[in-house]
Amino acid sequence: MCKNAILVMIFIATLATFVADLAVELGVAAGVPYVAAVAISLSLRSVKAIVITAIAATILTIAGLVLSEPGGEAYKILLNRSYAILAIWSMASVGLWLQWSGERLTVTQLNASVFQAAGDALLAFDQKGQIVAMNAAAEQMMGVGEGEGIGQRARDLVVLTKQDGFEYPDD
């Protein structure tokens, strides 16, 4: 893929994340998707591109804090923004380490890194509704150990109830 196309992808990912961040109230971890822009920047194999993208993502994460509609509890807001910045710089650090070490990640390995670096609970399902992947945040949220949720249905790990207190049927 040509460098200009990658730069456009980084710009679009960053802009889309910023617009989404401004559209939701504070307290939602809307800054975490900036990690995708940093991940895309890794394909340029340029220290400068990685650092500039991570700095821009950090600035926009903070700008989203200032410009978003108020809402949520202050400690949760600051914690979510801190997680977003941690995820951004974790991905950038991986990219910088790869640049300096000369190692190359496959797309699958890179996707797995993004998946695990996300501060939000992420799950992937197969066609039968069984969990095929879950990150550490999802494991913590669902109270399972590493890999214990794989092969189960989310329904088996979480009890969903209606507002009146009755459980949803298994169907």
Give descriptors for this structure.
single chain; 171 residues; mainly alpha; two-stranded antiparallel ribbon; 7 helices; 2 strands; 59% helix; globular
Amino-to-carboxy terminus distance? 44 Å
Biggest sheet strand line-up: 1-2
- Spans of at least 5 consecutive residues with low confidence: none
Helix and strand content put the structural class at mainly alpha
Helix content: 55-70%
β-strand percent reads: under 5%
Give the tally of β-strands.
2
Shape: globular
SSE pattern, N- to C-terminal: HHHHHEEHH
Count of discrete alpha- or pi-helical segments spanning 4 or more residues: 7
List the helices and strands and how they pair.
Blueprint (H helix, E strand, L loop, with lengths): L2 H21 L10 H9 L4 H21 L6 H28 L5 H11 L5 E3 L5 E4 L1 H7 L11 H4 L14
Antiparallel strand pairs: 1-2
Helix pairs in contact: 1-2, 1-3, 2-3, 2-4, 3-4
What's a quick, concise take on this entry?
The chain has seven helices and two strands; from the N terminus they run H-H-H-H-H-E-E-H-H. It has 171 residues and is mainly α.
Structural account:
- The protein has helices at 3-23, 34-42, 47-67, 74-101, 107-117, 136-142, 154-157; strands at 123-125, 131-134.
- The protein has 171 residues and is mainly alpha-helical.
- The protein has a two-stranded antiparallel ribbon with strand order 1-2.
- Helix 1 (3-23) packs antiparallel against helix 2, helix 2 packs parallel to helix 4 and helix 3 (47-67) runs antiparallel to helix 4 (74-101).
- The longest helix has 28 residues, at 74-101.
- It is globular.
